[in-house]
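Issue: copy button drops trailing tokens. Both records pasted manually instead:
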Amino acid sequence: IGIMGTTVYSVVMTEMYANLDEWAINLTMALPGVVGLVACLAAGKIADKIDKKQMFIWGLALFAVTGSVFGGLLAYSNMGQIVASCISGGVCYGMVSVSSIGLITDCFQDEKQRSQVMGWYNGAMAAVGAVLALVYGNLAVIKWTYAFNANWFALVIAVLAFFFVPACPPRDGTPAESGEKVNGEKGWANRLIPILFAFFFVSLAYMTVNTYIDLYVSGNQLGDAAFTGLLASVGTICSFVACSAFGFTYGKLKTWITVPAYALIGAGILALYLAPGRGTALVVCGVMGAAWGTAYTYWFFRSTVVVPENMVGTATGLVTTPNSL
């Protein structure tokens, strides 16, 4: 949902500036994050008390409807429709992001196995995102509002989740099974706070590029919405590869895994500034996609290790909040 909710805007950003009022663009870009911030915190607390599978399915189904219908109505610049779209997108992001990580945590207790599955999960998400980015771009070439129709794909995921995802009722207070057990509910905040700060600052850098890449493409005359979609696909494909290998790389580097990821994101931004071009954009989007996938997976995985099992939902909600900011 995070990929579907942001990639579509990065693909059609130039068309939005050409067809919408400035207030509508600002509201569309800012409000989902604000709503998502609150939704992630609320969903985190709720996920610790209910079946995470139900939250996951309802979040997907709601986004399939609102992300497609309200997104397609953006061309009319109606305040009510835009606000409704932004609110629903933020709420769905909170529900799905928190519940999905909680499902993995509940189903896989071993730290090594959990890191592998977390990587596979984010890798699969990136792979689907790569396909959707191409779909967004090609639909946008026909008419920019058509890009939002691809969000109906979330309904397919909801149906698959209904049949194949196991039920996950609330857990007790047993600490996470890892080499870094937390006694009861004390001491976990000191390990979680650094993750929150890292997530915020790295997200600020990466999401700025990811969100406005279409303006970079048009401003430097590198291509149209289809090329922007290609860039998004390259980024998500490389993210898929990095996420799929996360279990292996984390086993080798442990907490040092984020150092090269942060460095590559910084170097990518510098390269875009110093040497704008189609080749640069393709390489940088690929490298930054791999780095982001690695860091993103690490933050969520790490948050499930340093807290008691009955607080995983709360921790996931807290970690997701910097991304919304």
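Record 2 (pasted manually too):
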Amino acid sequence: PRAQAASPTETRALPTACHATRVTALTAPPSAGSDLFFRVAWAVLLLAVVLGPATTVVAQGAADGDELPMAILAKDGAWNAAEARTVESFIATNLEPFADENADAEAIAEARDRLLLPLNDLRAVPAFQAQYFRALAAALRNGLGDFTKIGRLNAMMLGSRIVDAAAIQLLEVGADDEAPGVRYAAARSLLSALNNEAMGLRDAEKTRLIRKLGEAAGTETDGFVAGKLIEAIRAAEVDAQSEVLLTLFNDRVSIHAAYPRLTYQPELSAMQELFINGLADGFDRDAARTFIQAAARYIRLTTTQLADDSIPTGNQQAAINLANQSFTVLDTLA
């Protein structure tokens, strides 16, 4: 206790066994001259660390952002003002490296992992998790403008762990980031969100989201990012999906014309799936016309690029397959 310099009047729940290594005040064994009472007390105290008793002297962790008190983790209800401030302070402390230009990737990753500890704690009840999701999403969103590139990347990674609609706004901002790595992480997290029913996204929210993702994918110049954005759109099973995909098919023709080294695989996979589903459900005339237009443009572009050898060898097969798929679309829908 003296090593921790804590007040003897401050108490909190002991960590579980998985957190026992954080308790540094109990590491020194009793001296050989200790009496029997002290030896028994020592044994009971060590057993308490393993089993998790009621209370012990508070460690520095709660103040420096290492962990949250069990009283908050286990509270089955709304936080009061003091508890909310404790959580906000914990989040803010651990987000400091995200905005520090001198913080290396390891330090930021460690801070990210500390922010996830409360969600992995077996003592955390659903009421805590729901409130923590929203508090963390708000803090990340508000601080995003001050974060470094590595900090923003880790913010997007945290966003994938927030099982609440509050994460969507954060990830949407990330999808427009100037750094391709951040955009990729955001797109990947959005894909996870759209695949996760626990997010509770309604069809109207999914529709709004994929329209925005479609606009982003239509101008994206990084092939990996575009691929994840298109995957996210395909994951949303809403009526507007076909319209969004057909629009971005046409939009991306000009992108591929300007950047011939980009792979056509994302468009190929989406076109094949849309074509098969459309044959089963039926295309209306406007959708068929837009699809035919995109197919004709891809045939012209891919054959031209293949002829002048501007497509890298590793991407040529995807271009050939897209041209063949486009011919199939024309033959079937025209």
